[in-house]
């Protein structure tokens, strides 16, 4: 993380972190994308 090195958290860094978290949650909850990454075929 950027701010562990002593750098202050600015709005851009916080927005990028928030977008990262939202994208990760979306990937984990999207059934169609999960089907693409699953090893078994339906």
Verbal overview:
The protein is mainly α. It is 62% helix and 0% strand. It is built from two helices and no strands. It is elongated, with a radius of gyration of 16 Å.
What is the structure about, briefly put?
With 42 residues, the protein is mainly α. It has helices spanning 11-29, 31-37.
Features:
single chain, 42 residues, mainly alpha, 2 helices, 0% strand
Described by strand count, sense and barrel closure, the largest sheet is: none
Counting DSSP H or I runs of 4 or more residues, the number of helices is 2
Low-pLDDT ranges: none
Q: From the helix content, strand content and strand pairing, which structural class follows?
A: mainly alpha
Number of strands: 0
Beta-strand percentage? under 5%
Question: Termini distance?
Answer: 39 Å
- The ordered string of helix (H) and strand (E) elements is HH
Query: What is the helix content?
Result: 55-70%
Overall mean confidence score, pLDDT: 76
| Shape field | elongated
Q: What is the radius of gyration?
A: 16 Å
Keywords: Membrane, Transmembrane, Transmembrane helix
Protein name: Putative inner membrane protein
């Amino acid at each position: 993380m950027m701010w562990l090195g002593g750098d202050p958290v600015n709005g851009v860094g916080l927005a990028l972190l928030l977008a990262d978290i939202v994208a990760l949650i979306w990937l984990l909850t999207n059934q169609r994308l999960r089907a693409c990454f699953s090893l078994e075929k339906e």
